[in-house]
Amino acid sequence: MKNKVYDVIIVGGGVVGTAIARELTKYKLKIALLEKNSDVGEGTSKANDGVVHTGFDATPHTLQAKLVVQSSFIYPKLCSELNVPYRKVGALLVVFEKEQIPTILQLKKNAEINGIRDLNLLSREEIFKVEPNLNTDVLKGLMIPRESITCPFTLTIAYAENALQNGAEIFLENQVKKIEIIKKSFKISTNQHTFYSKFIINSAGLFSDEISMMVGINNFRVIPRKGEFIIFDEETKNIINRIILPVPTKITKGILITPTIHGNVLMGPTAKDITDKTDFSVTREGIKEIITKCTKVVPILSKQTIISQYAGLRASTKNNDYIIESNDKVPRFLNIASIRSTGLTSSPMIAKYAVEKLVEMGLKLIENKDFNPYRELPYYYHSQDIVKEIKRKFPINKKFGHIVCRCNKVSEQDIIEAIHSPLGARTLDGIKRRTWAGAGRCQGSFCETRIIKILARELGIDIAKISRKGKGSEIAISRNKETLLIANKKNKNN
Amino acid sequence: MNEIRINVAIIGGGPAGLAAAAKLKKLGIDKILIIDREEKLGGILKQCIHNGFGLQYFKEDLTGPEYAYKFINKIEELGVEYIINTSVIDIKKGHGYEIYSINETHGLIKYRARTVILAMGCRERSRGAILIPGARCGGIMSAGSAQRLVNIMGYLPGKKIVILGSGDIGMIMARRFTLEGAEVIAVLEILDYLSGSKRNYVQCIEDFKIPIYFNQTIYQIYGHNRVKSIDIAQVDKNQNPIKVLERKLNCDTIIFSVGLIPENELSRSIGLQIDPVTQGPIVDEYLETSIPGIFSCGNVLQVSDLVDYVSKEGEKAAEGVMLFLNGNMPEKHWGKKVLAEGNIKYVLPQRISFWPNKDKFVEFSFRSKHPAKNITIRVYDKSKIIYENNMTKIVPGEMEKLKVKKELLLKSQGDINFSIYEKE
Catalytic one among A53, A193, A382, A402? Predict the structure, then answer.
């Protein structure tokens, strides 16, 4: 590949990086997004709870409060443009201790300062009318009607696909190793290529401090804060009707119980500062904490079927607010850091804010009149309404009638479409996040081997090269007896 | 959407569905259709290339595919219709049953059936369901998935393997991996006894000198992209870890063989009553469910150790369907309850309707909750013992069968209880 020269390079393809890529395609610019993983959204964004916050509890007058609140208002339009599932389910913050009542009154005031005036207090009786499965010890509730849910994977992928459609370039499996400042531009070396760019946006999330240090800016450090989740079988979906929130503390919003856009119930996240930025493991303590806390709020959950657990890492810093700033030492380099857990919500406004910052830093914007904000509903996407889906898709291709994932009714053609989409899926996780195949109650035990066969066939590679989430996580390591044959050969040679 | 009218819809073309179909045809029932979601009939038997099938039913030692083909050939000969690569997505009541299916040829198809036999089999319990903490990375797979990978696709999932659970598929895969060139470094069982059968233990574990440890489980999984190592813990009687025995035992693959779950989503969606213990529909002696005209057999009803039992169950359901279609219905559907007490984990059938026919016996299947020796199985009602049977031992990993005279059951008062008495 020849050396590539860009106006803006975005380092990090999480929900924030992809949102910025899309925002920048509204202007006549040459843009590239570099992502070290085999797919976008593979870092912090993949393990979000899917809640679109209103910002009612954000600390007033912070950048975070401003961007979250503004974003929450543009979300419905954004999701309809990008064809991303979105549902305004509302949230109910519940109080079990008398001492906490002043806190919720304070939260209501806080919300008003942030410009959110539709919160209302609920009595016990009113709570049970809307959420009959809550613990009867509940004292009071605070209803936040506009809190919503979306799909964090779909949104990140949709941003990326729409950015690609509007001319941005995305380079996956490109880990930035070195950034050099050469005259009026940056030379960026990845494990694969060399790129040149006038501007850099650092949205590398957990690794944003390391990227920043490559240009000599050393004023923050990312502390990964682990959040673990437990997800229930679909049959649990009617147990709660809206997001059930605990009273937040200074450190965390606390462990919530939420319906997911895919029809499950999710509990989490925990909040624990750790040191390893690659440690996405689920812990015994975490599982215990979630179950203890959540079954106290909704006791009936203790009898429900759990299908999976996962953990995410928030990219937090010692700074209590977002860090979106340039540094005089290094012109044309913008850091976006300390976004923690609200990045999914605030991504549309962070993107706009980042562009404003770039303009301040000297970027000239010329409107791209060809910009198309709409992402057509991809054929790989499917709702739970299988009859509706088959009617929509079967006339296009008969393979939509061949179901591969039996739990979520994902067809062979859905999988093929995901592989051949603009930002094609290459791994089992990539297929899962686009089609929801393997995310159901059997957790892939039926469809996994079938999907790797389809992936291998469509990509023209050996089955032993197909992985769960990129190199090193292959599902099959070799043909049968291959290891035996190699060992025998070695013995003979000796 | 066109509607195709049939007498019997059999959902699932595995051993239960195939046996039911063959029997129905022999009983003179026509317009039978087997609907199967896979590209070939035979269900899970297709990937069970080991032997040991059919010893009871055929008095022959067969492999899974051989066993399946005995039935597939039979239904081909008899001219039973079947449709493959077709997934049933919904069953609705109304003038019989409407069965909505999807396939590549027709898109959405609707069948209207007078009766339905549910024979969907089961799925595997996943790691997520049993809350094993640690890394979520490559190298973690269920035993059935691994079996398909190795036996059908010809690929190995890893070189250094730990198997969690001593279920039959887990033990069989331990042997298979060894034969294919991988090293099975441990089979861990959380209980203090085998989950699977003694026969599989001898033929797969003992004969291949594979280390097996009881009262142990995986405490933690380590690895980033792929499994690197695990911690193993000893558990107490309640299966809670009490002591970490081994830290960072190196392995590259973990295979979960931690139980099978009857796949009853369709059954639930039509509103069948489900037994919380078997996780299959509650049925009577002809395997009729809570909704008249819907029958259930095979692993979707109760997880069996032997495919021979599954075939027999399919045939039983077929007899029920025939009686139903001929209008020989019981006077009182589900008249009598059968209850499991004490060390009996479950009894099937859970109800008796006393179908009008010549049968002299009702055959019950049951399992114990925990192993016991020198026992008496006692069947009784509120006033008297109906039947007793002595056994030298009972283990949860092996399903037991018991025939009781129908006449005795007819005379009983109120519910019928099953219990185990241990002698001194």
Answer: A53
CA distance B389 to B402: 9
- Encoded tokens for B139: 């190298």
- How many angstroms separate the Cα of B107 from the Cα of each of A135, A407, A435, B40, B89? 46, 18, 19, 19, 12
Which of B365, B257, B237 minimizes the C-alpha distance to B313? B365
A100 φ/ψ angles, rounded to the nearest 5 degrees: -85, -10
Residues from chain A contacting residue B252 (CB–CB below 8 Å):
477
C-alpha to C-alpha distance for A414 and B179, rounded to whole angstroms: 37
**What secondary structure does DSSP assign to A286-322, as a single string?**
HHHHHHHHHHHHSGGGGGSPEEEEEEEEEEE-S-SS-
Mutation pick from B37, B104, B164 vs chain A, by most beta carbons of A within 10 Å, is B104
Contacts of residue B142, defined as CB under 8 A and 6 or more positions apart, other chains included, come to A445, B124, B126, B127, B255, B256, B257
Give the contacts of A492 (CB within 8 A, at least 6 positions apart). Answer: none
pLDDT digits (tens, 9 = 90+) for B326-355: 999 999 999 999 999 999 999 999 999 999
Best B153, B173, B178 residue to mutate vs chain A (most A CBs within 10 Å): B153
CB-CB neighbors (< 8 A) of A469 in chain B: 137-138, 225
Sign of CA dihedral B53, B55, B57, B59: positive
**Chain A CB within 8 Å of residue B340 CB:** no
Q: How far apart are CA A357 and CA A335, in angstroms?
A: 10
User: Which three-class secondary structure state does DSSP give residue B212?
Assistant: strand
| Phi, psi of B252, rounded to the nearest 5 degrees | -115, -5
Phi and psi of B393, rounded to 5°?
Answer: -155, 160
Instruction: Using CA atoms of B58, B64, B66, B72 in order, give the dihedral in degrees to the nearest 10.
Output: 90
Q: How many CB atoms lie within 10 A of CB A77?
A: 12
CA distance linking residue A34 with residue A348, whole number of Å? 19
Q: What is the pTM of this model?
A: 0.95
Identity of the residue numbered A217: I
Tokens of A225: 């804060």
**B393 C-beta neighbours (distance < 10 Å), count:** 11
A484 closest CA partner among B162, B159, B176, B209: B159
Q: Reply yes or no on whether A53 is catalytic.
A: yes
Q: What ipTM was predicted for this assembly? A: 0.95
Give the H or E element holding residue B361.
strand B361-368
Instruction: Tell me how crowded residue B390 is: count the other CB atoms within 10 A of its CB.
Output: 10
DSSP lists the bridge partners of residue A224 as A315
Side-chain-side CA neighbours of B218 within 13 Å: the count stands at: 32
Tokens of B23: 């029997």
| Per-residue pLDDT, A385 | 86
* Per-residue model confidence (pLDDT) at position A373: 98
